[in-house]
Amino acid sequence: MDPIEVLMHEHRMIERMLKVLTAVAQKADTDEVDVDTFEKGIDFIRTFADRCHHAKEEGEFYPLIEQRGIPKEGGPIGMMLQEHDMGRNYVKGMDEALRKFKDGDKSQAGVISRNAVGYINLLSQHIQKEDNILYPMGNRVISDSDREALIERFEELEEKEIGKGVHEKYHLLVEELEAKLNLN
Length: 184
Ligand SMILES: [Fe+2]
Ligand SMILES: [Fe+2]
Hints:
It is a single chain. The protein is mainly α. It has a single domain (about 5-180), classed as nmb1532 protein domain like (Four Helix Bundle (Hemerythrin (Met), subunit A), Up-down Bundle). The chain has helices at about 5-30, 35-65, 75-100, 110-140, 145-160, 165-180. Helix 2 (about 35-65) packs across helix 6 and helix 3 runs antiparallel to helix 4 (about 110-140). The protein is globular. The site of one fe (ii) ion has 6 residues, from helix 1, helix 2 and helix 4.
């Protein structure tokens, strides 16, 4: 498999979770907070989107394409890194508000919703930029042996960071939540 296809495949999974979050964020705005779905969504984002997908980009893919001539500071890679950080802040905000909500502070419903919507908008645009701009740029500058090395590094990273079987686990989680919310 091609490493860029692997990354794009992960984008499709993340987008499915963004749809799930969109559904529960709309309800949270009317004070009806689906705590279970938010908690599962946050776990998915932190583990699958961040420690699996963003780690592959930040630790392997971006540094490689930078070596092959795509600028980092002031260029597309720097912007993508900044957006990953902005995403982490939204998730932190969502998580903190959710905890307070569970402790009885119902006024946090709107904060949960706003952070979720912020994350959804940011990430969906981020994914578009990578799919349509940065990945094709990377695709043009990496060689066949780069591709083979990248795939190996991705596999190592996955095993080290999150362990085997995690793709399957999160795939099932997305399906479970889609079914619960009647999204399919
Ligand atoms: Fe990214
Ligand atoms: Fe990405």
